[in-house]
Amino acid sequence: MAIFKDHTINVKQLLGFIPEALITNLSVTTRIDHYAKVLHGNKLFYLLLYGILDNEKLSQRTLEDTFNDSVFKILFNLDEDETVRRSSISERLSKVDPAYFKQIYECIYEQFAELYALTERKKYNLIRVDSSMVSETTSKLLEGIDNKSGKKAVKYSIAFDGVLPCHSNVFTKPTYGSEDIALPEAIMEHVKKGRSPEYLCNGQRPAINQDNAGL
After folding, report:
1. Which residue has the higher pLDDT, 76 or 63?
2. Is 33 part of any domain?
3. Band of residue 36 on the pLDDT scale cut at 50, 70, 90
4. Measured in whole angstroms, how far is the alpha carbon of residue 72 from the centre of its chain?
5. Is 45 in contact with 104 (CB distance < 8 Å)?
6. Alpha carbons 203 and 99: distance in angstroms, whole number
7. Which of 26-35, 73-82, 165-174 has the lowest mean pLDDT?
8. 153-183 b/e with 16+ CB inside 10 Å = b?
C-alpha cells in the first residue's frame, strides 16, 4: 500500500469514475427515490461520499451541515434553496436500500481491477477476510444478534484484496455469531463471482473444503 501513500484525488475526479447512467439506472431499479422529496439517491450518495472525505468523524449532524453548505451545493449543482434537517437524514438512512450503494461500489471495483494486468493482480492474490461485531441498543435495531444484554449486534465481514475491499456481508442471525459459519459463507460468495485466490481468515487459512468451493 506504500505505493499509494502520496496519491491524492479530489471529489470531482473520484466521481468521474462513477457513470452517471449507472446512478440514474439504479435509482429506478432499486426504487431508492420512492417517496423521497429532497434526498434523492444521487444526492444522498454525494452527501455520504463528500461527508466521509470532508469530516474526520461522520455523524448526522455533520451531514446536515455539509448538505446545507454552499460549497457542497455548488460542487454538486444543487439548488441554493435546498436544505435538509438531521431528522430527515436519519429517517432516510433508516429506510434506504443498501443495494444501491453496493452496486455502485462493485461497478467501481470492477473498473479498477481491469486496469491491472494479470501479473500485477497476482501480487494481490491473497484475500484477507475478517469480521467485526457492532452492538446497539435493541430499540434502534429491527434485526440483530440478540446477546440478552439489552443490545443487539450486527456482524460485518469484509474481504480485502490488498488494494481495496472486494466483498462484504452483513449478518444479523444468531448462527452467524460464530466465525466458523460467517467467514466461510463470505468466502463462498466471493468465489461465486469467478475469482479463485487464496484466503486468510483472522490471519489463518479457513477450514473449508477447497474442492467443493472451487478454489
Report:
1. 63
2. yes
3. confident
4. 22
5. yes
6. 29
7. 26-35
8. bbbebebbbebeebbbbebeeeebeebeebb
